[in-house]
Amino acid sequence: MGDLKYVLRTLARSPAFFVTGALTLALGIAANTAMFALFYQVLMRTLPVPQPDRLVVLHSDPPNLPGGTSSDNFETVFSYPMYLRLRDGASSVLNLAVRSGSGLQLGDGATAQRAAADFISGNFFDVLGVRPAMGRLIGTIDDGQPGTSPVCVLSFDAWTRWFAASPATLNSTIHLNGHAYTVVGVTPQGFRGVLAGQSPDVFLPISMYATMAPGRDPYNQPGSQWLTIIGRLRPSVTREKAAAALQPLFASTLTAQLDELNVKRASVRARVLAKRVEVRPASQGLNQLERQWRQPLLVLAAMASLLLLIACANLANLLAARAAGRAREINVRLALGAPRWSIMRLLLIESGLLAITGTVAGVLLAPVLDRTLLTFLPEDSLGGWVTGGIDTPLLAFSAALMIATTILCGIAPSLQALRRATATLSIRSRTAAHTGLGRKVLVGSQIALSLVLLATAGLFARSLTNLMHHQFGFRPDHVMTFWVRPALNGYDVERGILYTRQLRARLESLPGVGSVAVSDDSPLSGNDASTNVTIEGYTAKGDDDTQVNILSVGPGYFRTIGTPLIDGREFTDRDDRSAPKVVIVNEAFARKFLPHGATGRHMTRGSGGKLESEIVGVVADSQHYSLRQAAPPLYFMPYEQTLIEAKVMRPATYLIHASQGFETLPGAIRQAAAAVDANVSVFGLHTLQQQVDDSIYVDRLLAALSTAFSILAVVLTAVGLYGVISYLVARRTTEIGVRMALGATRANIMAMVLGEVALVLAAGGVLGLLLAWVAARAVQSQLFGMQGFDLAVFVAAALVLAAIALSAGAIPAVRAARIEPMSALREE
After folding, report:
1. Does the pLDDT of residue 509 top 60, yes or no?
2. What SS3 class is residue 171?
3. φ, ψ for residue 633 (rounded to 5)?
4. For residues 36 and 34, what is the distance between their CA atoms, to the nearest angstrom?
5. How far apart are CA 484 and CA 438, in angstroms?
6. CA distances from 251 to 67, 83, 243, 446, 695 (A)
7. Which burial class, exposed, middle or buried, applies to 542 when counting CB atoms under 10 A from its CB (0-12, 13-18, 19+)?
8. Three-state secondary structure along 244-256?
9. What is the pLDDT of residues 6-20, one digit of tens each?
10. In the chain, helix, strand, coil percent, each to 5?
């Protein structure tokens, strides 16, 4: 306690030292704590359910099963008949449930709003072990005949947001997609379903799926893959044992489904029947955030760690300089018989107080950094799964950082101070030469680490530039998009087609609008649909995969988004329900299946059947699904023909290209839609450029944070270099005076000091370039359109750091050159 009181008094007499040291450490700890908060929430946190380690998800590697696939996540989806067979046949080893996500409309007309829904089996909540916050949850009683259980369960967040957490909500009626549902319960607070990054507002029985999606009856269709199967292992059952029990059921069901789908091709049957079912851990749910964020978070965590090391090096230099300035005090204590460990304790208490202060400031700053960071992400991209709050794991991590920084920053300066103790009362060593090698090593290390951060930030910035300026295959500028769901207002296919035509005509008449197109999706929306195909003139061989993506578009679609037509023609208004079936394919489709000419050939969806659709055009590849990945084989169907074939009015996505009046276009769009039918709500109104930006938010985040980290690192390094050189100049005042008295010019003195700066800079720069090359190899998978090593980026980073370092060293060099010889000698 005596040492603590003494340290507090001495720090109070040196507020500049204390504030500088604590702030330096706070910046490093804040960056690391903020990154850990994201890292923990995305990669480590388990579902808030009992024994999450017993949860599993069923998986089967591609190729996809015959038929159509519809999914809202990365995991394998299965048909409803497959689920029933696996659930009933393997109930002794695990309890299986299913889910499928969908978007719904809450309310009607102008007051309608978007709602995210999970359709679940009746045993879903029992499998997870979730208990209601109010009322009851969906149970097996709701697994009756399709359309007979119009009940729903609200999430805690939706209950709070929509109904202010009113108990009166229980047993009340809400309208979803125009249908009345009774609210029977609310999920517990903190439960956000099982799909990380997406939080359902409402849970519905899977028996109500066909009612909410008119025209679809997937319950008895083995070719409709749409359900994610999750489960809980029975006590003492391992994942391997569960997989062994499921495999025979899976194989026999596949055989029956291939027969029912009339798949006769031997190669296809062999490929499908070779599939195996896996039982994968799901303690974190379906963690698609991990798939997208793991590598970026590892990179950012590593960069934050380097920043903390630079901050620790700075603080260690500060403490070493302070300890050197207290040499007389330490010598007096030793002369009076003080044990060396007591002096070590005194110095460690000082570094510990700085670490505690810096940690507290860093912990308070970290949530602010996280919340600021989250504001740059697309709206609802994390679904509430990641927040910027302070919790127990965060505090534990910060405490560990505090202990580590106390040791890192305190021990080396303390040992150095004790080694130099002479047990005399001499105020100053008479040796003029004092190299300060330890401090120079620390500053050189800072320079090396700063160069790594600066070069990595340059790589990410250039990668983002490449990503934003390469050819997408479509033109995002001056294009606005939105979507409507007329089916929710009672529109059948006939009325829906008339509605889409009328709205398109009104939009085309708006001032400045050049073209308007309708589609069932827009580029980079995150949705996709696929099917296998049979093509005239193409015979599958061996393991050839005939699964392709499919998109329905109306006349003028390619002209509106700027995708070039390579061969043939676009769809026109004549490609309606009464016209022959036609399709357009992209270049990837033509290259894979019809390299000698696609136009004029015929094809159909699925295996076998009449080849009734003629290929009338080929368009350039466009990165409709991802800017980072090559365009997959894709074919387009006329939007109206798709509606007739599906016998259901699908959502309609509009794309509007306007050359002028873009700022007032959103209001004009809403007025046009209201003029056609005020009860049909407009959803997702935004620019296509915003959709492009949202699709690469991870790349933008990497570039922004790495740049911020590198700037902080360079600033800390410049401060550290300035402090060390200033300290060394002060220690060599007498030497410099003697040199000048013997004839050295001011230019000679400046050259001597700057020479030391250049030596430290060169040593740190060489090491930094080697480490930067290693770092570039490590982050290469995160870069686009470039190799890990980019000479221009590395040279630019080295020049920037050299300029800043030399500027920081020039100030004490000028001060040294201004020393008066007589004043220096008189002081000695």
Report:
1. yes
2. coil
3. -55, 130
4. 5
5. 68
6. 17, 13, 12, 60, 38
7. exposed
8. HHHHHHHHHHHHH
9. 778 877 877 877 888
10. 50, 15, 30
